[in-house]
Automatic annotation (TrEMBL):
Residues 1-269 form the GS catalytic domain. It holds the Pfam family Gln-synt_C-ter. GO terms for molecular function: glutamine synthetase activity. Belongs to the glutamine synthetase family. InterPro entries: Gln-synt_C, Gln_synth/guanido_kin_cat_dom, Gln_synth_cat_dom, Gln_synth_gly_rich_site, GS_Type-3. SUPFAM superfamilies: Glutamine synthetase/guanido kinase. This is GS catalytic domain-containing protein.
């Protein structure tokens, strides 16, 4: 399978379905039916927003390859700009929290969706639209990393999802342990990172312009993405989370460059 479009046929990609939970079965990304579960849900998305915003370039590297360069931003694939789509309803809830509102108040009740066929009954659907133009949309009880290339092993992108999520959880924990209330810690995290949340059309021509104004990087090619891989903040992330030493982070960068060059050389020859 190749991400690069060929002979008028779209390139091939995959969706990495990802969630976080406990060994007791608690899914952080399930809205839940109790107040406690709903607070966990809102807090978890705040942690994810922090991770995707603060380590945006690392997440772009997670899906960087020679083949995927031809697919991202076209061919029914999300753009190379990494953004978070939690749904329009949840985005409104984020704004309410930042404005001083309670963590509770968001309900994710499933709705009846018509099939368009009079011979069948309506089916249950998630309350939020599954935005096909988003690289990281919410899908009811998980998120989908939709920018992964078809030739990739999902282990690397999922590892980075876990790393940036852990960084977000550590950030919120530090705020709470420092005396900030749970509500205020989540509100502060959303306020500082909500510009990574985008619920519009990722295929539109205006999104790259808006993303630039928000300060989100648009690393269109693999070399651009790899160049940002071993930044000071990324090295600190990997070292703190026990993922890579500084030397290992630099080694991964060289490996990504070599894979990119080798892929192009094979295609040319």
């Amino acid at each position: 399978f190749h991400e690069k479009p060929f002979a008028g046929i779209n390139g091939s990609g995959k969706h990495a379905n990802w969630s976080v939970g406990t060994d007791t079965g608690l899914n952080f990304f399930h809205p839940g039916k109790t107040d406690e579960a709903r607070k966990v849900f809102v807090t978890a998305i705040a942690c994810l927003a922090y991770g995707l915003c603060q380590y945006n370039e690392a997440m772009r590297c997670a899906v960087a390859s020679a083949g995927n360069d031809h697919r991202l931003g076209a061919q029914e694939a999300p753009p190379a700009i990494i953004s978070l789509y939690p749904g329009e309803g949840f985005q409104a809830h984020v704004e309410a929290i930042v404005a001083g509102g309670d963590l509770l108040g968001y309900t994710a009740e499933r709705k009846a969706q018509s099939t368009g066929c009079t011979a069948s009954m309506p089916v249950e659907a998630n309350c939020e639209d599954r935005n096909r133009t988003a690289p990281f949309p919410f899908c009811g009880n998980r998120f989908e990393f939709r920018a992964v290339g078809s030739s990739q092993n999902c282990a690397f992108p999922v590892m980075l999802c876990n790393a940036v999520m852990a960084a977000g959880m550590a950030h919120v924990a530090r705020l709470i342990e420092g005396g900030t209330s749970h509500r205020d810690a989540v509100a502060q995290t959303f306020k500082e990172n909500r510009h990574v949340i985008f619920t519009g059309n990722g295929y539109s021509d205006v999104w790259p312009l808006e993303a630039s104004m928000r300060g989100l990087p648009n690393l269109r090619t693999t070399p651009e993405a790899i160049a940002a891989w071993d930044s000071v903040k990324n090295k600190a992330l990997f070292r703190t989370m026990g993922v890579f030493t500084n030397e290992e982070t630099e080694a991964v960068k060289h490996i990504m460059y070599e894979n990119y060059i080798t892929s192009l050389t094979v295609e040319v020859n």
